[in-house]
Amino acid sequence: MRREKTSVSQEDYLKAIWEIVQEEQTPISARLAEDLGVTPPAVTAALKRMTRGGYLRVERSGRIALTPKGQKIAEHMVLRHRLAEKLLTDVIGLEWSRAHEEAEKLEHGLSAEVVELLLKRFGRESRCPHGVPLFGGLPKLRKKYGAVKLAEAPAGRAYEVMRVYEKEREFLNFLAGLGILPGARVRVLRREYDETMTVTLGGSAKKIYLGKPATSRIWVRQRP
What we know:
The protein folds into 2 domains: 1-139, Arc Repressor Mutant, subunit A (Orthogonal Bundle), CATH 1.10.10.10; 146-223, Ferrous iron transport protein A (FeoA) (SH3 type barrels, Roll), CATH 2.30.30.90. The protein has helices spanning 8-22, 29-36, 40-52, 68-91, 96-106, 112-122, 137-145, 169-178, 212-215, and strands spanning 56-58, 64-66, 148-149, 158-164, 185-191, 197-201, 207-210, 218-223. A hairpin with a 5-residue loop joins strand 1 (56-58) and strand 2. By secondary structure, the protein is an alpha+beta fold.
């Protein structure tokens, strides 16, 4: 069965709503305007069109909810985005800090055939360069691995980095400079009253100091 044809703009809206929910935030029009870089009136008009099209509904509280039809398209777009990121980093060697931005341009052009070939190449259980599973997203990391934000991790324990926030190139460059990438091992030494964390990386004794703006964007699982 052929997938219903949607515009690039519709796909961007649906994916953005899905991602906001994944990050455990409330999808409202103001947040969409910020994430997509468009004006509030443009969001209002788009939501009305997409409500008529059966892709979503706007509740009286202002919360936006995807219909099954809208969620299916959103999940397909997210998959194409993650596959595009892996293509860019794993095949052609693009630095991971630029993968998200470039994948935004490529995701709309991937055909169903290319998606299947990329899935065969990378494997359905693989994760994007920033650590998110191709299928299941953050909920899968939480359910399968018990992943939590580093900001919530108790001190005195060792962790494996599972995923990092991917939408800010400067943040990714900062983490790369420290060596904090998916798969890295960190030990939390201390948590200060201002929520700054002192950690060590791998077997190194060198102390790294991270504020909450960083630790709230890094997901980890506890390791022995």
